[in-house]
Amino acid sequence: MQKKLLASYRGLRAEAEATALRLHELSELPMCEVQSAALLRDVLSSHGFRIEREFDLIPNAFIAAAGRGRPVIGILAEYDALPDCGADGRTPGHGCGHNLLGTASTFAAIALARVLKANSIRGTVKLFGCPAEETLVGKCYMARDGAFDRLDACLAWHPGAGTSVNNGSGAAMDSITYEFHGKTSHAAADPHNGRSALDAVEIMNVAVNFLREHIPSNVRIHYAIMDGGKAPNVVPPYARSWYYIRARDRKQVEEISARVDNCARAAALATDTEMHRTILAACYDRVPNDALSAALDRNLRTVGAPRFSAADRTAAAELGPDGGFARGIGSVSTGRGTASSDEANVSWLAPLGRFNIACWAKGTPGHHLLIHQQSQLPAAMKGMAVATKALALTGLDLMTDTDLRRQVKREFRKLTKGKAYDPVIPAGQPAPVQDRPGCPCEASE
Question: Do both 151 and 98 map to the same domain?
Answer without folding.
Answer: yes
